[in-house]
Specification:
The complex is a heterodimer of chains A (about 140) and B (about 120).
Chain A lengths: L8 E4 L5 E4 L2 H9 L7 E5 L5 E4 L3 E5 L6 E4 L8 E6 L2 E6 L6 E3 L2 E3 L1 E4 L4 E4 L2 E7 L7
Parallel strand pairs in A: 5-6
Antiparallel strand pairs in A: 1-2, 3-4, 3-13, 5-7, 7-8, 8-11, 9-10, 9-12, 12-13
Chain B lengths: L5 E4 L18 E5 L8 E4 L5 E3 L6 E3 L9 E5 L4 E5 L6 E3 L2 E3 L1 E3 L5 E4 L2 E7 L1
Parallel strand pairs in B: 4-5
Antiparallel strand pairs in B: 2-3, 2-12, 4-6, 6-7, 7-10, 8-9, 8-11, 11-12
Classes of the chains: A mainly beta (about 140), B mainly beta (about 120).
């Protein structure tokens, strides 16, 4: 399915090319320079769906108020969260029954590295971010 | 047994290009660190990825200071290259001017006044 989401206006030129017009929110952020930029991605292994992480708190669960919703009996309403803290990412499990796993290890709170494999309720995700030692 | 798990990405800040499935799987991302599109990410695909303000570019950045055809990020089976498209000065990669170079994960590219960073999937 072809989808497009975003806070700005975008339109399809009909040949697979997307045109993006800057939106006022991004413009304001750029002018103020207040919010640190956050770039990370979760890639679902099974379907290759990609979800961008752009905020300092990214919630995952089966409930209606999370950022990434996984509808599964094994997944709590608020199952876990990814936090951007002091220029790195941390994954925090919210006392889930089935647990949150990073590279085949059950975790409560774990710093995430580029390439980590996250397992939530039987669903596997690849975590991608810029490596800290490569920051410019 | 059928997989009845349903994944719903609800993050409204996600941006996925229309036509992503036409060009095959996403190979990486172009992230923008300043200017009017600061904070955006664009998917990069196998083959050419023309970046510029011209309507024929794959990633079009509408900015009066941005060249019509700035740079091509060419992705092959085992290489990523940045190739200058139409300028006298080329682009800046990791603070060095260049016209054509191999890209590594996390490299910075500046063209015009816009700073990019590439992320390989």
């Amino acid at each position: 399915m072809q989808t497009q989401r975003g806070t700005g206006d975008g339109f399809d030129r009909g040949n697979g090319v997307t045109v993006v017009v800057p939106d006022k929110t991004v413009l304001a952020d750029a002018e103020n320079g207040q919010k640190p930029l956050i770039f990370a991605w979760l890639i679902r292994s099974e379907s290759e769906e990609i979800t961008r992480i752009a905020d300092d708190e990214f919630t995952i669960g089966s409930g209606p108020d999370v950022r990434l919703r996984i509808r599964s009996e094994e997944v709590k309403s608020l199952h876990c969260s990814i936090y951007f803290v002091q220029n790195h990412f941390e994954l925090n499990d919210h006392n889930s029954r089935s647990g949150t796993w990073v590279n085949d290890r059950s975790i409560k709170r774990q710093e995430l590295d580029d390439g980590d494999r996250i397992m939530i309720g039987g669903q596997s995700f690849l975590f991608r971010c810029f490596r800290r030692d490569a920051d410019g | 047994m059928d997989d009845r798990t349903l994944i719903e990405p609800l993050d409204q800040t996600i941006f996925e290009e229309v036509g992503a499935n036409i060009r095959g799987p996403v190979q990486g991302w172009l992230t923008i660190w300043n200017g009017t599109l600061r904070g955006r990410d664009f998917s990069l695909f196998q083959g050419r990825n023309f970046i510029g303000s011209d309507p024929h570019c794959d990633i079009r950045i509408i900015d009066i200071y941005f060249p019509p055809f700035a740079v091509n990020i060419r992705i092959g089976p085992d290489h990523w290259q940045a190739i200058d498209l139409d300028s006298d000065d080329g682009f800046v990669r990791n603070d060095r001017s260049d016209f054509r170079c191999e890209l590594t994960d996390g490299d910075w590219i500046q063209t015009g006044n816009v700073r990019f960073r590439v992320k390989k999937r």
